[in-house]
């Protein structure tokens, strides 16, 4: 190990002595590292944050003061302020795919993504922090592909509440502080890795209360759900996925999953897309149109 470090150090000195300026040296080092998959893995390993970074603590403190004593009036998927469709009469559909991670599924449906690429179908990918940690190279590739917009699917894949509640056996956040961390730890992870902050957030289970939604808005993100349940957590058969997608209307947002390759989601999508195109539909990103909210 010491011999390797010394060799690397001498190599960098050699580059520096041969370079006419420091900027060129920095560029060379970046190119070497960018091609080194083990280096990328090391970066991702050190990026597994367990606590909130200090740079949003002042905002967190202010939002805790603002919302701690507020009582929610609504909870569920169809909560005031949650977007469920694009506000347009154009024949467009926003396909969104969740990647949840851990016990919620940490696989990668390569068949599905390859189909979207081959057919040049744009899609929005809501990525959870745990999935990023398990698929650092794949995340890097997806984030750099022009067809895909990367958005925030939370840090621990939790329902978003300011009071204690459970959805499908998953205990949600139960304080304003927890809501902020669930959003912002992954928000800053994605921004560090891609250079772009996500604009949209979807919680684990897509359940919220109305106070949590307002907290997310105060953090600068829009909460986005769906009007087409595309695969019901990747449990639908290919026929059910196909049927669900064919119910789309102008401006629909479809929710599907890209983290369960053993499912029939890919086959259902491959069946439905050509039919939707024949019916005059195009596929868009969320930011191509205004959002329609509850």
Report the mean per-residue pLDDT as an integer.
Answer: 87
CATH superfamily of the largest domain, called what? Glycoside hydrolase/deacetylase
Radius of gyration: 21 Å
Question: What's the CATH class label of the largest domain?
Answer: Alpha Beta
Total tally of structural domains = 2
Please give the oligomerization state of what you see: single chain
Distance between the termini: 58 Å
CATH level-3 fold name of the largest domain:
TIM Barrel
Task: Give the uncertain stretches in residue-range form.
Answer: 1-53
What count of helical segments does DSSP give? 11
Alpha-beta classification: alpha/beta
Quote the beta fraction: 15-25%
Largest sheet: 6 strands, parallel
Examine the secondary-structure arrangement and name the CATH architecture of the largest domain. Answer: Alpha-Beta Barrel
Name the helicity range: 40-55%
Q: What order do the helices and strands follow?
A: HHHHEEEHEHHEEEHEEHEEHEHEE
InterPro entries: Glyco_hydro/deAcase_b/a-brl, NODB_dom, Polysacc_deacetylase_ArnD
Protein name: Peptidoglycan/xylan/chitin deacetylase (PgdA/CDA1 family)
GO molecular function: hydrolase activity, acting on carbon-nitrogen (but not peptide) bonds
Signal peptide: 1-22
């Amino acid at each position: 190990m010491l011999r390797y470090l010394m060799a690397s150090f001498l190599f960098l000195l050699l580059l520096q002595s041969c370079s006419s300026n420091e900027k060129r040296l920095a560029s060379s080092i970046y190119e070497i590292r960018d091609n080194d998959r083990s280096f990328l893995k090391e970066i991702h390993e050190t990026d597994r944050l367990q606590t909130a970074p200090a740079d949003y603590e002042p905002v967190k403190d202010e939002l805790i003061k603002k919302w701690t004593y507020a009582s929610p009036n609504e909870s569920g998927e169809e909560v005031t302020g949650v977007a469920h469709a694009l506000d347009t009469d154009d024949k467009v559909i926003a396909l969104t795919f969740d990647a949840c991670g851990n016990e919620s599924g940490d696989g990668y449906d390569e068949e599905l993504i390859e189909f979207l690429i081959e057919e040049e179908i744009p899609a929005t990918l809501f990525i959870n922090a745990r999935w990023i940690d398990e698929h650092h190279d794949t995340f890097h590739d997806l984030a750099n592909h022009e067809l895909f917009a990367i958005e925030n699917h939370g840090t621990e894949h939790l329902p978003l509440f300011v009071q204690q509640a459970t959805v499908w056996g998953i205990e949600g956040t139960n304080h304003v502080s927890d809501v902020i961390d669930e959003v912002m730890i992954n928000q800053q992870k994605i921004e560090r890795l891609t250079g772009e902050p996500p604009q949209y957030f979807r919680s684990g289970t897509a359940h919220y209360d109305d106070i949590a939604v307002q907290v997310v808005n105060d953090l600068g993100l829009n909460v986005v759900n769906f009007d087409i349940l595309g695969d019901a957590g990747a449990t639908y058969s290919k026929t059910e996925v196909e049927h669900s997608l064919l119910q789309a209307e102008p401006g629909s947002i479809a929710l599907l999953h890209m983290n369960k390759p053993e499912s029939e989601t890919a086959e259902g999508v491959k069946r439905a897309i050509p039919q939707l195109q024949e019916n005059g539909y195009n596929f868009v990103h969320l930011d191509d149109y205004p959002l329609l909210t509850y």
